[in-house]
């Protein structure tokens, strides 16, 4: 039997290291019982637009765009009239929940990415994913805090600078006369691209409220 000399130690140490790694590999590759890889959202990639096919002439036509930042943009068409809503969306065990300006939230049950069927009792009928994203610029009735430069929407927490418009300039002037750091304001606004960024474009005279914090 050959005796291991000092010159053999580096080679012998390397052999032991390879052996240890080889023995440990099968154990490391074992799956943890009960652990599953996270599944993809049934909504598919976002942003995405979903719309229904009205069941009759003059029936409700519903279009909703889901944004990856957690906000949704919604348009309802009844006859020749259009109504817009903005709010927060989330996924729940029983489907998609839309929380906007209405008292009651809207609920829809998402199916595979090419289909989105509504739950019984919800307005709008069957919502299906559209081939292209529709921006749905509004105007939306939104409530948020304003500091003279930026507007932070209450439901979503999203922040936009105000775009250049006459109602927006009037809001800045009225806010300046208040002499406060921030105020709660109700805006009828559109989301527009301006100067390479998304801005809130005030469409009508805004309402400055006496409170400064979002409700709730």
What global shape is seen?
elongated
Structural class: alpha+beta
- Average pLDDT taken over every residue: 79
Tell me the total number of β-strands.
14
Which homologous superfamily in CATH is the superfamily of the domain at 48-129? NlpE, N-terminal domain
Overall description:
This protein is an alpha+beta fold. The N and C termini lie far apart (82 Å). The longest helix is centred in the first third of the chain and has 20 residues. Among the domains are: 82 residues, Lipocalin, CATH 2.40.128.300; 69 residues, OB fold (Dihydrolipoamide Acetyltransferase, E2P). It has an 8-stranded antiparallel β-sheet, with no helix packed on it. Strands 9, 10, 11, 12, 13 and 14 form a 6-stranded antiparallel β-sheet that branches. The protein is elongated, with a radius of gyration of 28 Å.
Briefly characterize the structure.
This protein has 216 residues and is α+β, with helices and mostly antiparallel strands. Helix content is 15%, strand content 37%. Strands 7-6-5-4-3-2-1-8 form an 8-stranded antiparallel β-sheet, with no helix packed on it. Strands 9, 10, 11, 12, 13 and 14 form a 6-stranded antiparallel β-sheet that branches.
Walk me through the topology.
Blueprint (H helix, E strand, L loop, with lengths): L8 H20 L19 E4 L9 E6 L4 E8 L2 E12 L2 E5 L6 E5 L5 E3 L9 E2 L10 E7 L3 E4 L5 E3 L4 H13 L4 E12 L2 E6 L4 E2 L8
Antiparallel strand pairs: 1-2, 1-8, 2-3, 3-4, 4-5, 5-6, 6-7, 9-10, 9-12, 10-11, 12-13, 12-14
